[in-house]
Amino acid sequence: MTFLKQLLALTLTAGLFACAEPTRPIISRQLPGPSAIDLSAPLTSTNISGHIAGQIIGPNQLCDGALTEIGTFTGEPGGTFVACVTNQQQNGSGALVFDLTHTYTTENGDTFTTTDHVVAAPINPPIYRINNSATITGGTGTYEGASGFIHDQGTLNLATGVVSVDYHGRISTP
Q1: Which of 2, 125, 161, 162 meets the CB 3.0–4.6 Å disulfide criterion with 56?
Q2: Cis bond leading into 42, ω under 30°?
Q3: What DSSP letter does each residue of 17-83 carry, written as one string?
């Protein structure tokens, strides 16, 4: 078999596995904590998308003195958020790299949380292009035990602290 045929066969096989319906685990186990999650229960997954409008407000008690961003998000769901910078650095190309935690509070009071890895590449400083990859790590209410991802792209103006990004992703709940 030629290399090209082997690569095509591997790609098709990987694609089939990626598209296959996930199976439910045979064994159910309970996680420690006040409310156990049944891992054998099927997940409900929903696509999410919308716009995030944020304002960097500097170090704040909302984030235990860390650099803080607050704002709103639209779409389904929609609501408000607080983002806390947990790490920041600048690389050799002038790009700024941030690690964040977000707590999103929906209009009905439920929350979901994320850990984010943001790359802000200079367009025309103080304007930077935002590219963010976030992992959904849990939540409360409807989003208890949530998982999934969010990707967003947009801009950050370091002179004004304004963040404007569009997001899309998928959130799954037990």
Answers
A1: 161
A2: no
A3: HHHSPPPPPSS----SSSS---TTSPPEEEEEEEEEEEEEEEE-GGGTTSEEEEEEE-SSS-EEEEE
Q: Kindly report the pTM of this predicted structure.
A: 0.76
Q: Is the pLDDT of residue 146 over 90?
A: yes
DSSP for residue 110: -
Q: What are phi and psi of 127, to 5 degrees?
A: -90, 130
Residue 160, classed as helix, strand or coil, is coil
102, amino acid identity: H
What is the distance between the alpha carbons of residues 97 and 122, in angstroms, rounded to a whole number?
A: 11
Main-chain dihedrals φ then ψ at residue 141, nearest 5 degrees: 60, -130
Among 83, 113, 116, 114, smallest CA distance to 99 is for: 116
